Amino acid sequence: MASNFDTVRGAPPGILLIRSIRGKDWRFSTYRYVVLFLTFVAYASYHASRKPSSIVKSVLYPEPTNKDNGLDLPWLGPVFIKTQYMGNESHHRHRLIDKGWAPFNSKDGTTKLGEIDVAFLACYSLGMYVAGHLGDTLDLRLFLTCGMVGSGVFVALFGMGYFWNIHVFGFYLGMQMVAGLFQATGWPSVVAVIGNWFGKGKRGLIMGIWNAHTSVGNISGSLLAASVLGYGWGWCFIVPGAFIAMAGILVFLFLPAYPEDIGFSSPHGSASSLEAVPADEEANMGKGIQVESETNMSRAGSVTRTGVGLIEACAIPGVIPFALCLFFAKLVAYTFLYWLPFYLSQTEIGGEHVSVKSAGNLSTLFDVGGIVGGILAGYISDKLNARATTAACFMYAAIPAMLLYRRYGSISHNINILLMMVAGLFINGPYALITTAVSADLGTHSSLRGDSRALATVTAIIDGTGSVGAAFGPLLTGFLSTIGWDAVFVMLMVCALIAGLLLSCLVISEISEKTCKPPVSSGQHNFGGNFSCMFIYMFLERLYVHKQTHSPFFGQSIL
């Protein structure tokens, strides 16, 4: 390591302090663990701050016929059985559960709740496109910090409406819209940081495990909100808001956005050396050895990279199909995110209703299944080297999973939990895969020649398009739930089917790559009578030969 690391632009102040105390620097692998941990905590806090709105729905718009029975499942522990109110909670129970909260306790209460969700997600999706480009041009660490602190402030302000006794719909709508804009900074930034530090080896498995932050955030947000619900629904927003703001300070102090910012070389290499030494370079960095050929790039820091525009990023092969697929996949996932606790509190399970608090706690098991699904999808896609095929299969499997949950989930508590976790596995699996490994793969596509500045932009395009769908899901649910929950589940199953079909071309391409490999003998091609493989192979060979040598169609074999 060179002795002037502390002068490299962008080094976090916490890292500088640790270096001065230790007298030496960490290894490259140690920094990778730090990056994984900090980005995990950062995005978990983002999702934790989004969860309270789903927890308080049944409080803002109470169902007068519901019983307030606890969910008696001893094997899950007392956190799912809490039904009694302590101290002044009885006052809040009378104030909130029995009367609701204007303007959400009227006949069109569910519609207003749906509009609140769609306002947040619409601003989130629109802000995503801008945030992705800004993330590729600004300091990712500072950009992420500002987004987290801003999110915390406006999430908490939404909760302050309870203490300030505000009953104006526009106030809550406005807070959610501004919070959505700040929340848009999160996903492009954390995926870009991870992509900057990790190459493509085992990326699906690594990012599948890392993407558990989404479910961990949902679970922690549900538990935090449910734990303080009895003291007033406002606390359900203030506590997660404080959590994300504190996590933002942690990011500012310790997160190195680029390896170059602290003196290491990028695992993607420079544009000129990407094809020559990618594997050896990453192996050397894994041992804490700096690659001399990249010294100048390292010293220049991340600011020397140039970003790509939205049109250039959209032209990367695979970006548009995966973005459209995520539109419908995220619609399904976010409908469960925002409406599952409300659905559980409004639906009889084993002949009884669960309390609002128990419904919030119970809904976390959907995300437990989602954690397994994300890891499983990443592992399978790595083994098969087929991202699209894996995502499509999971989306198709989600259809019968949702059908079974709707039809048989009301039989008993245990069956409801089992089917809920299975549905979470298949729904969150492809959602996690596309927003992590797929986005990082496409953001470092070979056509970019190592310009990882496209990471945030590509991630923003894919997840931004998905977030548009996520905005429609809760809005449609608000309307369809007045007709009946069967209509909601039909809508979700149709969307899952469309999501899988949108990847059909990529699936065919992946299968063709693995099956259409004709042997070569004495300079002649033996296609074994497989006409489709022969056509695909000859077409690709013709394009290749024309581009490289301009030779006749049946020229020398490219193999």
Describe this entry's structure for a reader.
With 559 residues, the protein is mainly α. It has 24 helices and 2 strands. It has helices spanning 13-22, 28-50, 52-55, 57-60, 89-97, 109-137, 140-163, 169-183, 186-197, 203-210, 212-228, 235-254, 278-286, 295-300, 310-314, 319-346, 356-362, 364-384, 387-408, 413-443, 455-480, 485-501, 504-515, 531-548; strands at residues 520-521, 524-525. The chain has a two-stranded antiparallel ribbon with strand order 1-2. Strand 1 (520-521) and strand 2 (524-525) form a beta hairpin. The longest helix has 31 residues, at 413-443.
Unreliable stretches, pLDDT < 50, 5 or more residues?
1-8, 64-98, 270-304, 518-541, 543-559
**Biggest sheet record:** 2 strands, antiparallel
> What is the C-alpha radius of gyration, as a whole number of Å?
25 Å
Residues in β-strands, percent: under 5%
Give the class from helix and strand content and strand pairing. Answer: mainly alpha
The topology string of helices and strands comes to HHHHHHHHHHHHHHHHHHHHHHHEEH
Distance between the termini: 43 Å
Précis, in short:
This protein is an all-alpha fold and 559 residues long. The protein is built from 24 helices and two strands.
List keywords for this structure.
559 residues; two-stranded antiparallel sheet; 24 helices; 2 strands; 1% strand; disordered C terminus
What's the helix and strand layout?
Layout: H1 13-22, H2 28-50, H3 52-55, H4 57-60, H5 89-97, H6 109-137, H7 140-163, H8 169-183, H9 186-197, H10 203-210, H11 212-228, H12 235-254, H13 278-286, H14 295-300, H15 310-314, H16 319-346, H17 356-362, H18 364-384, H19 387-408, H20 413-443, H21 455-480, H22 485-501, H23 504-515, E1 520-521, E2 524-525, H24 531-548
Antiparallel strand pairs: 1-2
Helix pairs in contact: 2-7, 2-9, 2-11, 2-12, 6-8, 6-9, 6-21, 7-8, 7-9, 7-12, 9-20, 9-21, 10-18, 10-20, 11-12, 11-17, 11-18, 16-17, 16-20, 16-21, 16-22, 18-19, 18-20, 19-20, 19-22, 20-21, 21-22
